[in-house]
Amino acid sequence: MAVPKRKHSNSRSGKRRSHDQLKGRQLQPCPKCGEPKPSHVVCPNEHCGHYMGRQMVAEAS
């Protein structure tokens, strides 16, 4: 069975892992209220609650 002759250095391991970081959420403005929200999600604004042009969440009174 093949076994590595030498240990990989921390620098080499870090170079391999350099692309494993988390990316930020992609936010887009809500077409109704303009508040930034993740795509394909109901608008979290308490006075909006729209998704795909329809009212999904009743307005808080």
TrEMBL record:
The keyword Disulfide bond does not apply. It comes from the Bacteria. One of its GO terms (cellular component) is large ribosomal subunit. Keywords: Ribonucleoprotein, Ribosomal protein. One of its GO terms (molecular function) is structural constituent of ribosome. It holds the Pfam family Ribosomal_L32p. Residues 1-36 are annotated as: Disordered. PANTHER family: 50S RIBOSOMAL PROTEIN L32, LARGE RIBOSOMAL SUBUNIT PROTEIN BL32. Belongs to the bacterial ribosomal protein bL32 family. This is Large ribosomal subunit protein bL32. The gene is rpmF.
